[in-house]
Amino acid sequence: MTEAHPIGLSIRGGVKVYPGTRALKGVDFDLRMGAVNVLVGENGAGKSTLMKLIAGVEEMTEGVITMNGREMHFRDKADAVAAGIGIVFQELNLFPNLSVAENIFIGHERTRAGIDIDTETQREEARKLMERLEQPIAPDTILGTLRIGQQQIVEIAKALALKAKILILDEPTSALSAAEVEVLFRVIDELKAQGVGIVYISHRLEELIRVGDYITVLRDGTITGARSMEGVDIPWIVQAMIGSSSKEYGRTEVTEFGPEIFRAEEITLPRIGGGFTVDHVSLSIRAGEIVGLYGLMGAGRSEFLECVMAQHPHSTGKFWVEGKPLVERDVPGRIARGIALIPEDRKRDGLIQIMAIRENLTLSSLPVFTKLFHLDLKKEAQTARDFIKRLTIKVASPENPVSSLSGGNQQKVVIGKALMTGPKVLLMDEPSRGIDIGAKAEVFRTMRRLAAEGLGILFVTSDLDEVLALSDRIIVMAQGRVTGEFPSGTDAAQVISATTPNAQVSKEAAE
Amino acid sequence: MTAVPATKDAQGSSILLTFLQARTYVALLLVFGYFAIMAPNFLSLANTVIVAKHAALTAFLAIGMTFVIITGGIDLSVGSTVGLTAMVSGWLILHGIDPGLGWSIQFNTVEIALLVMCVGIFVGWINGILITKLNVAPFIATLGTLYIARGAALLSSGGRTFPNLAGNAEYGSDTFPLIGAGTFLGLPVLIWMLIVVGLIAAYIAKRTPLGRHIYAVGGNERGAALSGVKVDRVKLFVYMFSGFCAALVGLIIASQLQAAHPATGETFELNAIAAAVLGGTSLSGGRGKISGTIVGAFVISILADGLVMMGVSSFWQTVIKGLVIVAAVVIDQAQSKLQARVALQQEAATGR
Hints:
The structure holds two protein chains of two kinds. Chain A folds into three domains: 236 residues, Rossmann fold (3-Layer(aba) Sandwich), CATH 3.40.50.300; 170 residues, P-loop containing nucleotide triphosphate hydrolases (Rossmann fold, 3-Layer(aba) Sandwich), CATH 3.40.50; 74 residues, no CATH class. The two termini of chain A are 45 Å apart. By secondary structure, chain A is of the alpha/beta class. Chain B is 73% helix and 1% strand. The N terminus of chain B is likely disordered. Chain B has 14 helices and two strands; from the N terminus they run H-H-H-H-H-H-H-E-E-H-H-H-H-H-H-H. Chain B has a two-stranded antiparallel ribbon. Chain B starts with a helix and ends with a helix. The longest helix of chain B is centred in the C-terminal third of the chain and has 36 residues. At the A-B interface, strand 1, helix 10, helix 11 and strand 20 of A face helix 1, helix 9, helix 10 and helix 14 of B.
């Protein structure tokens, strides 16, 4: 296999020191061309740092990068781009106010005589890229109007437009639906055949096994395993990643469900330009039950949760909490009635990044600490500390800004904020998005425990394994409608088939 | 590059951070010390009182401005509101309210003060409604009210000054001049007012849900709304509070001069913004402190008065003021960068 896949880039003795930490401790890494090199490790293991070195975003403290026998010095990203290296970052780096085509060619606009932007060519090339990625997105669409999954596709298109020889994909699928992931894999195969060397980072282990040719496992800034993908299985990866087998978030026992705690009837959200984003959705949750809301991107799942949280004043339909109608029309009112939402986009909706961890945790429950108008700071700090301990959030100090935490710990802060309001119904939108396997397992255990305490949980996910393993009941949505409802233990194939109830899916999505 | 120098580095940046965080106070000490040595009579009691009175006027406006800026907005209308409220005080003292029936309603000092405050709060309310309900950008909304309020002030007297606002003992308004000139326990009344307003504002910022919500709205409006913060109400409050502060200044100036001129308060909004920024308030929202703002207001006023006493030309004074503001923002940026780094180091040190 070595002859078939020549080494296109290698790092020897790579060390990266950030003030106070050694993110990489002498890493040797070979990147093979015409193959998918998967990189795996828990959050903070150094994957992203390693990729930033290759992409020229960060400079190496020690060590050498060689390409085709020549030593390379990437001082900035432009150097790396010149060497044929493209990167898709984990966090989207897009401009919501610009069009899809403008986003794709940002920084390397197609121009006439170096001044005048050739809009026509850009639009045409963008259209071809979207076609290649099998996305019905018009090049002139304003990016901000797209769903996160579609935005991620644009981000991938941006890297493809550079015609890179080495393409780094840092968690490209975290917001993609199963169908979109399939398209991406086809594109990856195509690129491989063209001899492009691909680095693929993901937390979804099944994906890595499927797509990878070579695997490198990182733990605490050192490489704990590097081999060809043949014979690699999930237990091996997990073993190399965290040192011991511990992927277990299934049910502990069959629980008795309580009475119905939440019911939605005929929830409808009209879409601009006709049709419905949420199309007469009715569902109910019982106390102690975890209901998984599964579906493809754009199926209307997130929008349904937003309707419950009073984010869409134009939506119609009725909600009941514990048998009593939910008449409050604003967010504080709904929170007071026991609804809590954990939004999909932590950065944008979940947290106030510059505020302290404590302030974020208590933001929704300030009335608890308030007498008349006086805030009891001692009680607040005490409760914040309790929640930090209870949810095992790893923090140096609750007074640090929440932005200093890793993704998994930030997610726990969002969960803590929701729990502090004493909810009866917990709505979780992609609770495991962009967090590592250890934190994921903890989040899932927390969900189990909360359900056992009598909460009703409705969680949206695009991860089939997750929905099958965690749900007491699975509800599938497609095109804004509920298209299937399954008890736990249902065959995966049945669930998948419900996500595409008829062949018109792609056509409808195009509109 | 072992762990040891890294820790030293961390300590070094912690010390530097503490220094930068206290920079407004350092600046205050520097300007105060400099003029104490260089300008004769700077430390005399009479001068100190004058400087403090000047600083207080900027400080009132800057306190209101701080809340507005923390929510991510700006209030350009405060200077005009000062002018308008000064004119309203003048009008009420001279004419009272004339319902057009051949008689008029006259007011005593307290009633005048309350009415004037209502006018200021009303201007703030207009700003708030424009910004929240009608979705006008704060800069434009308050620019509009800046012109409207100034125009209204000019219209009230046809551009003339309301003179001789000594009040009328018959109506109980003869105590009006005391707002600006009176003393209580040896301190000018307006300094007492500043202490009270400052303490209330600091209390709101630190110890009330409203204060927390103000910071949250500035940090991430969407996130705050999803967390149950009533964003519109918070914004309405900050603009009304800013209008209230402007009304206080209008009242004080009319009282001090015993006259009201429609041009009163021109460009005061810029001093208020400068004081807030100097005190560490971030124009991108979410960060700022009342104590810092008050100190910032004092730095600006001491600088201005000190330069006058030293006989520096007013042209140079303007340049120096600008330099100080720019320097303050540059240092502010350095501080937030460093702060983020120190926090990251602390989190990294916990072993992940």
